[in-house]
Amino acid sequence: MRERLFVGGEWVEPERGHYEVVDPATEEVVGLAPEASPRQVEEAASAAREALGAWSATRPEERAAVLDRAADLIARDAEAHTRLARAESGATTGTARAMQVGVAVARFRRYARGALEPVEEPLPPQVAGAGPMGPASVLGAVAVRRPVGVVTCVTSYNNPWANPAGKIAPALAMGNTVVVKPAPQDPLSVYAMARALREAGVPAGVVNVVTGSGADVGEAAVGSRHVDMVSFTGSTAVGRRIGEVCGREVKRQLLELGGKGAALVFDDADLDAAVRGIGTTFSFYSGQICTAPTRVLVQRGVHDRLVEKLTAHLRRMTVGDPSAPGTVVGPVISAAHRDRVEAYVELGRAEGARVIRHGSSGVDGKGFYVAPALLTGCGNGMRVVREEIFGPVVVVVPFDGEEEGVALANDSDYGLIDYVWSGDVARAFRVAGLLRAGGVGVNTVGRNMEAPFGGFKKSGVGRDVGSYALHAYSELQAVVWPG
């Protein structure tokens, strides 16, 4: 598979050649991704600007029809897309099928409906007395959501279908045009998505895809004078740099950044349910997910029992080929990231944690595998407790009372999603209200896909998902008239 850039509705040869996309499970080449030049990125942004006027003027029903057709086309080729997603991201077959491709289909369908949601909000009339502005009158008003304009969508490597779809679909539904810059590790799925959108009838220039193995492509896509907004999912460090550029140019930004989710487990909790939830850190994307409950804060009275149950759960984690039916934990995205995660495990050991591991660190000597790890005996000052590891690693910190547990949870630079397990639902909801996080799961790690998603503190800026995404990709305009 030798891809080309998608710019202005055409497939364009990259000016700087191609780079290899590697299968994390086998270390074999999946395909060749195009290396865009900064000039070609600017051409993509210019094409998006040129297409904006016509696309934003289309009837909502037309935009909805295009998004619905795109969902149909992605679903039609779901098995091929699943194989591609598994090969370039290392996700297990079940995850690639349901949580990557399946969620992408669902998001295009959701925002096909979203295109039809009302954009006007009537406001109460206001009586204006006579004065320098004119005679007395009654003024009517309406708040209307308008497209932001050209949106650069910079996506993360851990979900090459759902994450781009979650940006592209609501942006298009609101009448914006987009420049998509996928993560360099797994961009091939986004080109497959672009083909579906083109076949679905997206006009030339409305969707553009540019890629590169270095930082300059993303920098060009963020910094272009044609771009009005940047939507980014990824690390807090990169988010800071994007925020600096957006701040200088006063561009809108939607940033979903890192996480170090606290899972507070109280002594009256259903420990088996808590373990099932916490255990998703080991298995779901091999821990490469910002919403994972990686930081377990457990009340001291049940600490030993919870560690015992987590250890037993860990032993059931089958590490291996993500295409094999019984595999639970696949590889991480790259050799560099494998080494980074392993370095954190060793750092935890050096900081005094007890390290419990299970599973192979490789399959036949190939692949970027990390044996899942449970670190106990941790304190909140340890780097492994405070920093995002982004791998199949869970740290455990004991606490005594509720106040201490909440304080430990909030003593973090991050605040994306926290979790509370307690048999006392009233207490769980009370504690949820004290947590400085954009979301709180009460006795679950499940997500409601209409609920707002985003973070407090260094976990991001803004909210998306459901109708909140439509708000994120729109500007509010006030229209006032004499009644």
From TrEMBL:
InterPro entries from the UniProt entry: Ald_DH/histidinol_DH (IPR016161), Ald_DH_C (IPR016163), Ald_DH_N (IPR016162), Aldehyde_DH_dom (IPR015590)
Stretches assigned to coiled coil: none
The entry's keywords: Oxidoreductase
Keyword Oxidoreductase appears in the UniProt entry: yes
Gene Ontology molecular function terms on file: oxidoreductase activity, acting on the aldehyde or oxo group of donors, NAD or NADP as acceptor
Domain of life: Bacteria
Occurrences of domain Aldehyde dehydrogenase (ranges): 11-479
Family classification: Belongs to the aldehyde dehydrogenase family.
Descriptive protein name: Aldehyde dehydrogenase family protein
